Amino acid sequence: MSRNLILGACLSSLVVLAALISFAWTPYDHAALNIPDKLQTPGVQHWFGTDHFGRDMFSMIMVGARTSIAVALVAVGIGMALGVPLGLTAAARKGSWLDELIMRGNDLVFAFPSLVIAILITAVFGAGAINAIIAIGIFNIPVFARITRGAALSLWEREFILAARVAGKGAARISTEHILPNVANLLIVQGTIQFSLGILAEAGLSYVGLGAQPPTPSWGRMLADAQTMVSFAPHLALIPGFAIILTVLGLNLMGDGLRDWLDPRIRVARA
Question: What would the pLDDT profile of 42-88 be if each residue is shown by its tens digit?
Fold first, then answer.
């Protein structure tokens, strides 16, 4: 097992653990205002200091982890649930009008970044975590569709697929019984990468006010609130910034480690 996988798993586990603990306990109420204690620097009483409303930063970081993970996880789930079947279908119908329709639809979605999609959605339905999930999820669909199609196309010419065809299996059954298990490793790695990008996307959407709304803490909105106070209270920006960096770093390292661990060719080359 590679060092990248171990280090990435440890960093990611810390964030997930903090999010889980926040359901039962935080040092302070993350939404409680305490103006006399505002803008305290990190210390014994408040480990990460307090913000301009006197709220405990450590508690807000813990609950913010819960928000970021939930949004990114559901968004990646949407992308996989819709993108993988589309990719399998496009590969099975290579060259047909259905393949062309799916891939041109993917190109259309790729033309609109998640931020633009979020703006369009919030213009109709309003800002919020649900709409951020939808925006990020829609952007993930063509990613998984392309990855799945590309990996599946190389398998459709293999001997075991030809044998399945001779046995009378249809395209749908071959895709689910033979193609999908053979591309699952690639999808797991890509899912980890998209999860880290989902964390970044959620932070970006919250930064511009399109993500989770107050009083729910969000790392991106914490950065936005801190931008006018960096000169005299830098911890307000540094702490959520480092939380985002460490989370994304951990997930990327874990994805890189999973790729090495799950790919037998890389394992043999490094042996």
Answer: 999 999 999 999 999 999 999 999 999 999 999 999 999 999 999 99
Domain extent, residue 80, equals 65-270
- Looking at the 3D structure of the chain, how many domains does it have? 1
Residue 219 located in a structural domain? yes
Residue 13 lies in a domain: no
Residue 46 belongs to some domain of the structure = no
CATH code for position 95 = 1.10.3720.10
Burial of 163 (0-12, 13-18, 19+ CB in 10 A): exposed
Strand, helix or coil at 233?
coil
Distances in whole angstroms, Cα of residue 117 to Cα of each of 122, 127, 132, 202, 210: 9, 12, 9, 13, 11
* 113: enclosing H helix or E strand: none
Query: What single letter denotes the amino acid at residue 84?
Result: V
Domain-located, residue 23: no
pLDDT tens-digit series, residues 77-117: 999 999 999 999 999 999 899 999 999 999 998 888 777 88
Instruction: Output the DSSP codes for the chain.
Output: --HHHHHHHHHHHHHHHHHHHHHH--SS-TT---GGGTTPPS-SSSTT-B-TT--BHHHHHHHHHHHHHHHHHHHHHHHHHHHHHHHHHHHHTTTSHHHHHHHHHHHHHHTS-HHHHHHHHHHHH-SSHHHHHHHHHHHHHHHHHHHHHHHHHHHTTSHHHHHHHHTT--HHHHIIIIIHHHHHHHHHHHHHHHHHHHHHHHHHHHHTT-SSPTTS--HHHHHHHHTTSTTT-THHHHHHHHHHHHHHHHHHHHHHHHHHHH-HHHHHHH-
